[in-house]
Design goal:
Blueprint: H1 2-12, H2 33-41, H3 53-73, H4 83-94, H5 96-103
Helix pairs in contact: 2-3, 3-4, 3-5, 4-5
């Protein structure tokens, strides 16, 4: 199922997989950084139960980066609680860069 989603979601969202903007260096300076980290740290139940802790922690770091990349590119937006629940779905299926590109739409 995930193979199909991995192909379909970028197409459905009209994402050019060859032109994904690179990650900015200043993500931790964003005004919503602390709130995003707090929410993502509470997101453990959204990851598969059998996942190793080091893999989950790596994915949680990527999740923070996805959210902050969207917020940096769209300064008119503010983080809201629960946004990480949407982002983690894409992260787990398509990976960090494609998840960002989908959420950036």
């Amino acid at each position: 199922r995930d193979d199909l989603r991995r192909k379909a979601w970028p197409k459905l969202m009209n994402v050019n997989v060859y032109e994904i903007p690179s990650k900015p260096a200043n993500l931790r300076a964003h005004r919503d950084y602390r709130q995003v980290v707090l929410d993502v740290e509470r997101s453990m139940r959204r990851f598969p139960a059998n996942m190793k802790e080091e893999q989950r922690l790596r994915l949680q770091d990527q999740l923070v980066d996805i959210i902050l990349r969207v917020l940096v590119r769209h300064p008119e937006l503010h983080y809201y609680q629960g946004y990480h629940d949407i982002c983690v779905t894409f992260l787990l299926v398509v990976g960090e860069d494609l998840a960002f590109a989908i959420m950036d739409k």
